[in-house]
Design goal:
By secondary structure, this protein is mostly helical. It has one domain. The protein has helices at 2-31, 49-59, 64-87. The protein is globular. The two termini are 17 Å apart.
């Protein structure tokens, strides 16, 4: 029973981190002006439903468009994420849930 609770806590922590990482990628893309302007381009693709479901669970994003936006932002800012993360040292988002 205790192992199950620990496993659930770890899953929640990983999901929370994944959601935070996606949010941070979108924040960096926003800071760089990549998300400014109108939404004029339509991008379509067929995806395995399980892949999309798991991505939504891990990120907490429910909108297909927002999920795709976060994924693209993650690709674009991936090289800068480490540097940006190190620059955040000493600051903690007031909305972060430290209990799980």
């Amino acid at each position: 029973m205790a192992q199950t609770a620990v496993a659930r806590s770890r899953v929640k922590a990983v999901a929370s981190f994944a959601g935070t990482k996606a949010e941070e990628a979108v924040a960096i893309a926003t800071e760089q002006g990549l998300l400014s302007g109108g939404r004029t381009l339509t991008v379509r693709g067929r995806m395995p439903s399980l892949l999309v479901e798991e991505a939504k669970k891990k990120t907490g994003i429910q909108s297909d468009s927002k999920l795709l936006e976060a994924a693209l932002a993650s690709l674009v800012v991936a090289d800068e994420y480490g540097d940006w993360l190190l620059a955040q040292s000493g600051s903690v988002n007031r909305n972060i849930d430290l209990e799980f």
